[in-house]
Amino acid sequence: MKNCAALLIITLVAGLALSAVNEITKQPIANAEETARLEAYETVYPNTEFETPADAQLLLEGGQAAIDAAGYSGCTVSDILFAKDQNGERVGYVVAAVSPNGYGGDISVAVGIDAKTNQITGFSVLSNSETAGLGARCTEDEFTAQFAGKEASAIEYVKGGGATGNQIDAISGATVTTNAVTEAVNSALAVYNSVLKEG
Predict the structure, then answer these.
(1) Which residue, among 112, 98, 141, 101, has the nearest Cα to 49 in the 3D structure?
(2) Cys-Cys with 136: which of 6, 101, 130, 141 at CB 3.0–4.6 Å?
(3) Angle at 44 between CA 176 and CA 180, to 5 degrees
(4) Could you tell me if residue 2 is inside a domain?
(5) Where is the FMN-binding domain (predicted)?
């Protein structure tokens, strides 16, 4: 009986300690995640300031409807920001989207889009659970740099190199990942073209 009481007390103390540590670290973790998110946005649309639209929820709902209408299975829009120059003029957008179809699960991306040229300014993978050395290469510059300068219309991937126009080269040995990334990028572009594009 004494052993049971001792185990109960140890379990309660350990549970309270874990709860306290969780509470103490919750805000620093949230701050670090927000900083990482903004740094990724600065990568996809450099030299701009970001602003959350006043009608963000309405834009997100419209964006999700555009993704669904385009047929990107299970993809979601997670963020829409205005990109503004140093004079406060809106010059473009950052759209974050998620594809659930990666080899390891969700792949979250951010895409910068210039409103004047209708071109992608940059692309970044925000999070992924892909296999190291294969699908996880979706975060490497060799892959991500392919998106900048592409038209803000559907991106396709090709295997074996030789991408032209609005195509990118697939990651060798990681077709599922490449497909999921392309799907997430195209979801972001569907949001831009259906909800954000001016004129």
Answers:
(1) 112
(2) 130
(3) 10
(4) no
(5) 102-192
Closest CA to 197 of 98, 37, 52, 62: 62
Distance CA 39, CA 22 (A): 25
Angle at 182 between CA 147 and CA 162, to 5 degrees: 60
Domain extent at residue 173: 44-196
Q: Is 13 contained in some domain?
A: no
Name the pTM for this structure.
Answer: 0.84
Tens of pLDDT, residue by residue over 79-138, are 999 999 999 999 999 999 999 999 999 999 999 999 999 999 999 999 998 888 888 989
**What percentage of the chain reaches a pLDDT higher than 90?**
69
Residues in the chain: 199
Structural domains of the chain, count: 1
Let me know: does 38 contact 49? Beta carbons within 8 Å: no
Q: Which of 188, 194, 199, 142 lies closest to 45, judged by CA?
A: 188
Q: CB–CB of 41/123 below 8 Å?
A: no
Residue 10 resides in a domain: no
